[in-house]
Design a protein that fits this description.
By secondary structure, the protein is an alpha/beta fold. It folds into 4 domains: 133 residues, no CATH class; 155 residues, P-loop containing nucleotide triphosphate hydrolases (Rossmann fold, 3-Layer(aba) Sandwich); 85 residues, Orthogonal Bundle (Helicase, Ruva Protein, domain 3); 125 residues, de novo design (two linked rop proteins), CATH 1.20.1440. The strands form 5 sheets. A 6-stranded mixed beta sheet has the order 2-1-3-6-5-4. Strands 10-13-16-9-17 form a 5-stranded parallel beta sheet. Helix 17 packs across helix 18 and helix 21 runs antiparallel to helix 22.
């Protein structure tokens, strides 16, 4: 060990609470010991420094000593190497990362684990020079002569939601939400903001979108927002699949030739053709009969349609967005919805949350609707229009809103119609509920027999979503990993989809209680960790990924799906 060495200039990228999860922050300093590195350190939280490989040999000789943890195995996490070492030394490791994305995901997971173990030390990770140089360039001059940059705001996420923040922060860096979207899809909770970020993500892609959510949660607003941001100026055509007779469905969607049936007096283009270059919105697609589902699947796969009465096909480049308030995943298992169509539509799934899942947004939504209700057709606020008091807003927040935002808007409309411009009291709101036949006393949620039953329903739906995400990944990965010849275009698409679906699973895993038992939660969590390892391999080395899939992960998929299925059965059996 060398006790002292000549001073060296070190470029450092920090990642931790000092950067608020915003990414990497640049530092440049001259130092000759590990004590010099500690000068940049904050307090109370773990801090990770990333350095280039050409600095590692000199840093290993620093005094006081740095603990050298060698080269990281790609199948192991940072925690296995860096935590549990002596408190008075700085752990250092050769990260052995193939990309900056793998590095950042690994660091985020490590910081979460370190916080849970109340670690507040400094950790050093060496990476390839080319990756470091790219990150250094991308980070920009965050620190310059001691001046700190202004951090970008992030959602207020509780520590229990830390895993959700991994996906959220990825979306934060990739997707900037315009103010008009915030005014259109209202809410300040991270669940609402996640939907807005997915809208931006979907708008920049041609991948089919499937919007799932209860009635009244704003599915059509999401669809129209995706279209207006991504394809503004092109046609937007909507079809309510549950509101059109079977005998008219095909002519409405695909069009017809003159004389093809009684009443066909002229050639007519269908909605799919009219939406060419734009967006076709298939609302309530779960209501479609199986026969009609086949026709939609064929048009999606072939990217061409045929009018009734014609023999030739017409190419159509149309973005398809589908929506449903039904559990399509369960319907596929019961043979009520085609599995191949489901996975074809589920390119980017967006779940619009029920109001009961983000109650803190209810006052904000209520004020948004109330302003519209009390504004005339000229856009002028009506004179003497009352405001909603804090007590009224609190009463609205306490109700569970089975009809979601649509029901909230209806109640507020009725409240204004009945009360007029006078001051609104809590008793007025209760009167509206009574006149509409709603039992206000059951609005508040207590852990009664009814409340326990509702909680079981939430657990069952959560387990079904976990099952759905995992099955989707297996469905998309199996053809790629089972093929001898690698299709580069299909591989690129599968990599992007896996990245997205792993984010979905991260979101689900932060809802610990909704997995019903600790045993099931632990099984899913362990699977998620192994899936992360596979994800890193799949992004960088398809041949090693295939080997890992065949030796480990294929069996893991089957095992975790069995655990989830049995837990869902137990939830139903305890009702």
């Amino acid at each position: 060990m060398v006790d002292s060495i000549s001073e060296m200039e070190v470029r450092i990228l920090s990642y931790g609470d000092d950067s608020k999860g915003c990414g990497f922050v640049r530092h440049t300093m001259r130092c000759s010991s590990s004590e010099d590195l500690q000068k940049l350190r904050g307090s109370g939280s773990p801090l990770v420094y990333v350095i280039s490989m050409d600095c590692l040999p000199r840093l290993r000789n620093f005094s006081p000593p740095i603990i050298d943890r060698g080269i990281k195995n790609k199948h192991k996490g940072l925690s296995e190497y860096l935590m549990g070492t002596r408190e008075d030394r700085i752990p250092l490791i050769d990260g052995n990362y193939g990309s900056s994305r793998q590095l950042e995901r690994s660091i985020r997971t490590f910081i979460i684990n370190a916080k849970n173990r109340r670690e507040d030390r400094l950790f050093l990770i060496g990476i390839k020079n080319a990756i470091f140089d790219k990150l250094w360039h991308d980070a920009g001059e965050s620190f310059s002569k001691g001046r700190r940059r202004q951090d970008r705001p992030y959602p207020d996420i509780d520590s229990a939601d830390e895993m959700a923040s991994v996906l959220l922060r990825d979306l934060w860096q990739r997707c900037n939400v315009p103010p008009e979207l915030e005014r259109r899809f209202v809410g300040s909770s991270w669940k609402v903001d996640l939907v807005r970020r997915f809208i931006i993500l979907a708008a920049g892609s041609d991948t089919p979108v499937l919007i799932l959510g209860d009635t009244g949660t704003g599915k059509e607003i999401v669809a129209r927002s995706i279209h207006e941001i991504g394809r503004k100026g092109t046609p937007f055509k909507a079809l309510n699949c549950g509101g059109i007779p079977d005998n008219l469905f095909e002519s409405e969607l695909f069009g017809y030739k003159k004389g093809s049936f009684t009443g066909a007096l002229e050639d007519r283009a269908g909605l799919w053709e009219e939406a060419k270059g734009g967006t076709l919105f298939l609302d309530e697609i779960g209501d479609l009969p199986l026969l009609q589902q086949v026709k939609i699947l064929r048009a999606l796969e072939d990217r061409k349609i045929r009018r009734l009465g014609e023999t030739t096909y017409r190419p159509v480049e149309t973005r398809v967005i589908a929506a449903s308030n039904r559990d399509l995943s369960s319907m596929t298992k019961m043979g009520q919805f085609r599995e191949d169509l489901y996975y074809r539509l589920r390119g980017i799934p967006i779940h619009t949350p029920a109001l009961k899942d983000h109650p803190d947004d209810i006052p904000l939504l209520a004020e948004h609707f109330w302003e519209k209700i009390t504004t005339d057709i000229r856009g002028v606020r009506m004179q003497h229009s009352p405001k909603l008091s804090r007590r009224v807003l609190d009463e609205l927040r306490a109700y569970r809103w089975p009809g979601n935002a649509r029901e909230l808007k209806m109640v507020l409309n009725n409240l204004y119609t009945i009360c007029g411009p006078k001051e609104i009291k809590e008793r007025d709101l209760r009167s509206v509920f009574y006149l509409q036949g709603q039992d206000w006393t059951t609005g508040s949620f207590h852990l009664s027999e009814r409340g326990i039953d509702l909680l079981r329903g939430d657990c069952w739906r959560h387990l079904r979503r976990a099952d759905d995400v995992i099955r989707t990944m297996r469905y998309e990965l199996t053809p790629i990993l089972g093929s001898r010849k690698i299709d580069n275009k299909a591989l690129a698409s599968a990599r992007a989809n896996l990245d997205f679906h792993l984010g979905e699973l991260e979101i689900l895993c932060q809802e610990h209680m909704l997995f019903h038992t600790d045993k099931t939660y632990s099984a899913v969590l362990g699977f998620r960790d192994r899936l992360r390892d596979f994800h890193d391999l799949f992004q960088s080395d398809i041949h090693r990924a295939k080997k890992y899939w065949n030796e480990t992960l294929a069996a893991d998929f089957e095992a975790v799906l069995t655990v989830i299925f049995r837990e869902a059965e137990r939830v139903l059996g305890t009702r």
